[in-house]
Specification:
There is one protein chain. With 156 residues, the protein is α+β, with helices and mostly antiparallel strands. The chain is 49% helix and 13% strand. The chain has six helices and five strands; from the N terminus they run ααααβαββββα. It has a five-stranded mixed beta sheet with strand order 2-3-1-4-5. Helix 1 packs antiparallel against helix 2, helix 1 packs parallel to helix 3 and helix 3 crosses helix 4. The longest helix is centred in the middle third of the chain and has 19 residues. It starts with a helix and ends with a helix.
Length: 156
């Protein structure tokens, strides 16, 4: 993990790269998350000061959008589709099995840091639901048994 001075320097570089951009908050937050894997708490006041907005406004955006993390993700990220088509194809039973198998809930990471479980609202595989994204790999036609096998493969 980088020290706070290194965090601050990197965030300053990101802010400079986005200077003059109209509506820069979301692009800045995406760049910070790409740089650190999450939005460090110390970044919020630095971003707020640079954009002359309140820390509450920055935090509100970070906490509103599910793609932003306040803590680093696990080594693997399992995103399960929660859109209507996947839910209609028994996506809830797949999600329940994944939570049970991992012992965590949405937006949590297993204690060993192996897997973070996140909901996503459409992966574009509506005809092949329930669907998931494991790291960068799309998987469709999930069942509770298939999601369990998928988790076992990720944990190997």
């Amino acid at each position: 993990m980088l020290d706070s001075h290194a965090h601050s320097d990197r965030i300053a570089e990101i802010l400079e790269a986005h200077r003059g951009l109209e509506g820069p908050l979301l692009p800045i937050l995406h760049a910070v998350q790409e740089a650190f894997g999450h939005i460090p708490e110390a970044a919020i006041p630095q971003i707020a000061a640079a954009l002359t907005i309140s820390k509450a406004e920055v935090y509100g955006v970070v906490s509103f959008y599910h793609d932003f993390r306040e803590k680093p993700a696990g080594r693997h990220v399992l995103k399960l589709c929660r859109a209507e088509a996947c839910q209609a194809a028994f996506g809830n039973s797949v999600a329940d099995r994944a939570k049970e198998k991992l012992g965590i809930d949405w937006h949590e990471t297993t204690p060993d840091g192996a897997v973070t479980l996140e909901p996503v609202f459409c992966l574009g595989l509506c005809a092949c639901g329930p669907a998931a994204l494991v790291d960068d790999k799309l998987v469709g036609m999930l069942t509770p048994k298939k999601v369990e096998k998928l988790i076992d493969e990720v944990l190997k």
